[in-house]
Amino acid sequence: xxxxxxxxxxxxxxxxxxxxxxxxxxxxxxxxxxxxxxxxxxxxxxxxxxxxxxxxxxxxxxxxxxxxxxxxxxxxxxxxxxxxxxxxxxxxxxxxxxxxxxxxxxxxxxxxxxxxxxxxxxxxxxxxxxxxxxxxxxxxxxxxxxxxxxxxxxxxxxxxxxxxxxxxxxxxxxxxxxxxxxxxxxxxxxxxxxxxxxxxxxxxxxxxxxxxxxxxxxxxxxxxxxxxxxxxxxxxxxxxxxxxxxxxxxxxxxxxxxxxxxxxxxxxxxxxxxxxxxxxxxxxxxxxxxx
Length: 291
Description:
It is built from five helices and twelve strands. The strands form two sheets. Strands 1, 7, 8, 9, 10, 11 and 12 form a seven-stranded antiparallel β-sheet that branches. Strands 2-3-6-5-4 form a five-stranded antiparallel β-sheet. The chain folds into three domains: 1-77; 110-195, no CATH class; 201-284, Nuclear Transport Factor 2, Chain: A, CATH 3.10.450. It is of the alpha+beta class and 291 residues long. A hairpin with a 4-residue loop joins strand 5 (176-184) and strand 6. It starts with a helix and ends in a 7-residue tail after the last strand.
């Protein structure tokens, strides 16, 4: 039996198409599977990334909480009878007349003489060598000793010069009074003169609190200001004598009776190189609102 040539070709083409269909179907299936896997991978990545983000956020929250707790733990109330607190408080003695009326934003703002006076408070009685004229309370003081003291309390060396303005210094029973100094650049020594003088203050102060916070020690002091007249004594809460607390007939005024209405001074010392340096002072005035 004879076959038509055209018919044979048609059958071959049909058979070829039939064989190619499974191939196309397999390719399509492979593409679908690949796309599915990609979507699953993307979803897994998003879920993983979200978990990482949540973990980071939780860590930051914990760290912030820990930092706050750590700061709170570092705040410590100090005893007012401790040697450290009393020593730091005594350093301020020669500058009290200044500190009760004005803020000191930075210790570097103190005058050269004030820095000398403050540094003197760190010295010991044996640092002052007696001279031939001991009856007049004159002493020799080496420049290097004052430099070492200023490095501890101020963080820098003082400018060496005369100290003409008298500052009240109390180092011991023998070394107490208003102090002036003359500097001799040839011998690199100071001639120190202690002059006995009764203190006539128009203010009263009392240390009421001491706090250690990190590297700082903050001393809290109450202050009132006194104006004595012939018939009575006026007590004020500010140095300008414009905020009256009370007029009293009593000659002996006690600050304990007026702590509630007294102003507050904050003194800050910061620990640097194993010693506490005077940093600043700030007055918080108490305004009186009596009706």
